[in-house]
Amino acid sequence: MPAHSALTLPPLPYADWVETKETLHLFLQIIGKIRMKTHPKLNHWWHVTLYPATSGLTTGRIPCGDMGFEIFFDMIDHSVRVRRDDGLMESFDVPGKSVAQFYDALFTALNTLGISVKIVGLPYENKSTIPFAEDMVHKTYDADAVTRYWAALCRISVIFERFRSRFTGKQTPVHLYWHSFDLAVTRFSGRAHPLEGGTVSDREAYSHEVISFGFWPGDDSFPEPAFYAYAYPEPEGLPSVPLKPPAAFWTEKNGGSLAILKYDDLRHAPQPADSLLAFLQAVYDGAAKKADWNVAALEHAFSS
Q1: Can you tell me the mean pLDDT for 156-181?
Q2: Non-local CB neighbours of 97 within 8 Å, separated by 6+ positions
Q3: What distance in Å separates the CA atoms of residue 193 and residue 209, rounded to the nearest whole number?
Q4: β-strand 175-177 against 79-84: which pairing, if any?
Q5: What is the C-alpha separation between 129 and 121, in angstroms, rounded?
Q6: CA distance from start to end of the chain
Q7: Would you call 183 helix, strand, or coil by DSSP?
Q8: Distance between CA atoms of 282 and 159, rounded to whole angstroms?
Q9: What is the average per-residue pLDDT within 166-189?
Q10: Which Pfam families match (predicted)?
Q11: For position 217, what pLDDT does the model report?
């Protein structure tokens, strides 16, 4: 396979799978909370995230006592596997399960493997407020839509990784934040800039200067999938930064400036991979210059 093959993105119309998306989001919050509870804490909440894998999403190896385990949500055969690093494994099928049934099946698997975890069994920053163990409402699961979503994450991750390779400074992995349901990669200038106010989690996330990039599948406030980028703290004049490709635009969200490239605009671009890289690079170049980052020192000489 060529190193830089053409990027083909599957259709992901928000309205067609919104109920499945909401159920899947809650499933992933349960998995993510288990990782958050058991993994040693990392800066900026990097210990809570999930990662695109060859057939779904994974927690990666989670240290637990003198061993480790992984939770793998397979989005091709639509099962969840919990595997210890000694090879013992429990699994269950996902389709047909409500959130409450998923929660019970996952914790039964953990307990069978001798993994004792207690989480706050409530959705986090989600429009659902039903305790996981009681939620029989959210149970829609369109397997084809979930597979398309996973395929989109994997193909987008390829481009995010190429973009990530251009930077030598501190930066996140390409990872999925289960609370907000977005795939993200973030670059740091190396300078501290503690957030004033906000929650404890906000202050941990925004303790240093960042330029962040991501993809989310849509929500009630923006009901279509899109790519985004922003800078913290926002430098003066950020919305004047010219964007690429021409379909990209600046908007305001939560009092700050957000660069947006709609997923469908990228899907239909002549060269989607090049267009996505151009979007990411244009935001970074403009934001880093306005924020007075040491761009030359942070550039990787062997970038693709």
Answers
A1: 96
A2: 105, 139, 141
A3: 6
A4: unpaired
A5: 10
A6: 17
A7: strand
A8: 15
A9: 96
A10: DUF5996
A11: 97
